[in-house]
């Protein structure tokens, strides 16, 4: 989708064009309006405009001067000129500025639409030439290792990814791991960490280890490797149809893993411990298989080096096992930090579904979940610079305390009530912030009406101009430039009524260097010129 800006000092023409064409159908997502070249240049600093449609003859800077400025600052913007002057000199200047087309007023909407569609097609063709298929394919190939590792990490920690997305990504990343097929995990831990080795040397060592493993496993197993969040090298393996049937898959993998250890020790002169998981279905079993390999290192291997161990998954399928959803990314802390309330509530739903579906009645699980929620809720309150009583009331200590003998149902009720209170507090704070910010903006405009700009306001409130512009529009219902114009016109009216000042003095007082431009704006706004208004008093 593209964005367009229409510039003309005839406001009715700008407004008419802004609503008169089928912009969505043309591929235009946003239509920006400016009533002078100067206003256009200011707005262009904060808008991602692709196409500029401008009149030539305007008060102040002309359309051709505007196009020249735009070409110097934003070479990607393409321009179309509208003019009532059918003169060769104008057309020649427009062509010299690289204008796409030169249309005579009055221009029919259909003619402008045809021109813009041709221009959009030209922009698209240019973009396709810039990012040709071969170049994109090369860049994609170069990024494949990172893309594969990122997907593997997400699956290892149990990130919820729809089946269609997993299948599409494995196909796109050229990973032969169909949904539901049997897989096992090999986890390698490099034992000798050389503190003097820099990041580049360490990366080369890991690459060499992965290359050895890939070569040893090739032919009998499909392999997908990466690093987990603990920096273990993980190899996901799936038996290939052509693999030898003389050995059981588990025995075959063990044979290959021991060979990998030997090759690494012989050629790289380092020791490596290896843990082989049980078998499971892709991708559902990945988190449990991965956890079993981690537990094998922490519970059995410890500080031993050059070890090999089976991680028997059955020990993790007992009645007592770790909660999954509570720790699966995105975590409660991650969601509440960025105030993703809907996602937080959906995660709560999944947490309690897990507690319910497995018939978990142990109070330990209830307490574990409560502790995680209390941590997240407290973190949010403290991040806002508040204490719990300021958000949950004077009975905060009682309302945040876990009652003895709480059931899953009681914890659920407590969790959602506290969440509702936090959301209400957040909404109240957001409303207060916006209201306070608007007051600051209004006050700044009142005191700096002569030279106020969107950038100066944004600098004053320490925010980005685009955010200020969008906030002002949503809170006040009018554009910032329109508000400033209205305030200047009302100030001009007051000065005409109460002060014995010349028109050019009033123009300068409210921020217009050219009296002619001020007179034109005043007449557009009030229907009469400043002279006519003053004479009527």
TrEMBL record:
Residues 439-536 form the HTH araC/xylS-type domain. It is found in: Cytoplasm. The keyword Transcription regulation applies. GO terms for cellular component: cytoplasm. This is Response regulator. It comes from Cohnella pontilimi. The lineage of its organism: Bacteria, Bacillati, Bacillota, Bacilli, Bacillales. Signal peptide: none annotated. InterPro entries: CheY-like_superfamily, Homeodomain-like_sf, HptR, HTH_AraC, HTH_AraC-typ_CS, Sig_transdc_resp-reg_receiver, Tscrpt_reg_AraC-type_HTH.
